[in-house]
Design brief:
It is built from no helices and eleven strands. A hairpin with a 4-residue loop joins strand 5 and strand 6. The chain is globular, with a radius of gyration of 13 Å.
Amino acid sequence: VQLVQSGAELRNPGASVQVSCKASGYTFINYYIDWVRQAPGQGLEWMGRIEPEDGGRKYAQKFQGNDTFTADTSTSTAYVGLSSLRAEDTAVYSCETGGTWGKGTQVTVSS
């Protein structure tokens, strides 16, 4: 099982960004994918999850509204879309499934 994430991103405040997580080594639709983030000096925050089979989503309350989970079953890739970015959204964003983690994607929001 492997999760390969997209590279680091730098955005201005108010912009949007999409982070990808490409899965391999298992049947993509059979397991949900969790998204978590870790801001500098902070602990892990669970953002929510998506079930690729039916697109079902669950969001932590803090992340409802501006963030969107999607999954492309044709490419076995999950995405998290972040909009209206603020400096406080600067963090490493990681995907996880069944105990396997992506390496994380650094998103930096700065003017």
